[in-house]
């Protein structure tokens, strides 16, 4: 008799959780995540606000799976909001936002905590004669902090200015600059640049009308304006996020009105190092699409997050994640949602090549209606789960042989059996006698 060995199939594909998950955090009736960063332990820190009696800043530390390690909230008798958080050189955290006083006037609020979220110090910037708001903070190369926002925001419509504040490592103001014309001007994002200066984006309305343009302001290390450029058309155009790119230029994202069918589109602009436009594109569908955050990715492209209603209805909004190549060509997009309104406010590429996003979610169909903080972790393709094959190793060793029911056995002719190897791979075989 001649025995023939047939390998019926090789490695069995395994479907499992790869790098992704999504979770919600219900801390009060009205919660929102505004900013998230991966921390040096592989977990995440996020800030935003909760609402108990008033809005209060919240700081939440998560592990790498999104499980809550601790939560700290700064509860006061007036509204506060945390809009930006970064881990600092001492493994603590710096938070920037807005704090209202007894008269209802807003001040920029800067808060420094230790590694477990306990406040070390806090300072405010502004006075009782205006309403100032803080939107973005970053630790600078000298260990201090740079903040951008707006002054006279909301209090005196048509006359706000972009504000830039530099502090030392203890939050003591070193200088304070404002930029803009006679209109409503606000800074939403700031980053220190390679030359030690700063780049700011936001909105500028030099004519005091209801229209606006994306602004890009470059300063030196002392906040003196070197140049400024604006982008957009005749409608409202806003820049929410800016980052210096590997080629020394800048990437900006926000939104523009008057896009598809007169609705809003994601608006992204790439400039050279002098702020001159290299390319700009609109992204989205036929309804309302926004973006709040952009980052250059390790492959030289860009990741953007915001929200979209273009693929449902205006009462069904999803988190919107868009991946671009280095020329601004869309490579893929993903949408996430567990409620009827899901919002993406910040995205960052993580050390494993995936992405972390924070925002908020609401489900009006499940009373009582409330908003929850929403956090999404994806793989490098924007997926929450992954399908993958276990590779076959040339050095693998046979562990055991089982029948098709999983019972350990010995190979027999004309009876299928499965060989299981120490690397997790399997082979189904059949010996036939002729």
Q: Which terms summarize this structure?
A:
434 residues; mainly beta; Tachylectin-2, Chain A; 4-stranded antiparallel beta sheet; 0% helix; 55% strand
- Largest sheet report: 4 strands, antiparallel
Tell me the Rg in angstroms.
Answer: 26 Å
Query: Spatial order of the strands in the main sheet?
Result: 1-34-33-32
Nearest-integer average pLDDT: 87
Report on this model:
The chain is globular, with a radius of gyration of 26 Å. Among the domains are: 3-12 and 400-433, no CATH class; 78-231, 5 Propeller (Tachylectin-2, Chain A). Mean pLDDT is 87; it is low at 1-17. A hairpin with a 5-residue loop joins strand 6 and strand 7 (68-74). With 434 residues, it is mainly beta. 0% of the residues lie in helices and 55% in strands. The chain has a 4-stranded antiparallel beta sheet with strand order 1-34-33-32, with no helix packed on it. Strands 3-30-29-28 form a 4-stranded antiparallel beta sheet, with no helix packed on it.
Question: TL;DR?
Answer:
The protein is mainly β and 434 residues long.
